[in-house]
Specification:
284 residues; 2 domains; disordered C terminus; globular; mainly alpha; MetI-like fold; 14 helices
């Protein structure tokens, strides 16, 4: 009886694992299907794109006019450069400020520490849309519209990253820090030589996710930029559509081109993202 019960439990677990894998596969296909279609639609001419019934695959992969239009006859390369500068710069500043704040919350003792930490966590519940008007008025008064700094400054601080990094730093033993200080180690040395290397998976995952999120931002860059050459890539894609030009295939080609950085990041750093996010929440 016990043996039959064990076999039954194992078969149930195997069935659940198989069902879970199958559902995950379906979900993955549903998520990636629009991306695949956008890439394939970039190889269609106007006649094939507007044909009925619609076709999923292009007639030929040798039709590259849409991609030539995007890369050589539009401002998409400039938009991608703008997004790259903003995403990289804001991510670097965000990581620096987040690690320094997390170190303070993890190791320092000062009046109001708990209140300040919970205040930082409380900002996570404020939707960005609530403060977007205030941010816009501030940027306008500082004359930072149509500048890289004006676009990137709202991304310099992230309460989520402060929380994740603080959780990671809390896993470092307090006795290790005390021993390091007895050997003449300073806070700055301990921060650079111990905390940052130990938290490298978390920092890597946060940096990658931050880059992708800033790269895909649409509303804020749209508000604070007026010059076409200062637009970011997500805003610039909409500029490929003109009322006098009914062609939609170049838009899909532009979407496929702008998705390449995000796809490459998730393809090559997927394990780092999952491992870093799980490691950042191991201790309260």
């Amino acid at each position: 009886m016990k043996r039959k019960g064990c076999i039954t439990i194992k078969s149930r677990r195997k069935f659940k694992a198989t069902l879970s894998g199958f559902l995950s596969l379906l979900l993955g296909i549903a998520i990636i299907l629009p991306i695949v279609y956008a890439f394939l639609a970039g190889f269609k001419d106007d006649i094939a794109f507007d044909s009925y019934p619609p076709t999923f695959l292009p007639q030929s992969f040798h039709y590259l006019e849409n991609f030539k239009t995007v890369l050589f006859h539009s401002l998409i390369p400039r938009f991608m450069l703008n997004s790259l500068i903003i995403a990289v710069g804001a991510t670097c500043v965000r990581i620096i400020l987040s690690t320094l704040a997390a170190y303070s919350f993890a190791f320092f003792e000062f009046p109001g520490k708990k209140f300040m930490f919970f205040f930082v966590l409380g900002t996570m519940m404020i939707p960005p849309e609530v403060i977007i008007i205030t941010n816009f008025l501030t940027i306008t008064k500082l004359s930072l519209t149509d500048t890289y700094l004006g676009i990137a400054v709202v991304y310099f601080v992230s309460a989520t990253q402060v929380f994740m990094l603080r959780q990671s730093f809390k896993t470092i033993s307090a006795s290790l820090r005390e021993a390091a200080f007895l050997d003449g180690c300073s806070d700055l040395y301990f921060y650079f030589r111990i905390c940052l290397p130990v938290s490298k998976p978390v920092i890597t995952s946060l940096a990658l996710s931050s880059f992708v999120n800033i790269w895909n931002t649409y509303l804020w860059p749209l508000l604070v930029t007026n010059k076409p050459e200062m637009r970011t890539v997500q805003v610039g894609i909409t500029m490929l559509s003109f009322p006098e030009s009914p062609s939609k295939a170049p838009i899909f080609a532009g979407i496929a081109v702008t998705l390449i950085p995000s796809i490459l990041i998730f393809a090559f750093f997927q394990r780092n993202l999952v491992h870093g996010m799980s490691q950042g929440a191991v201790k309260g």
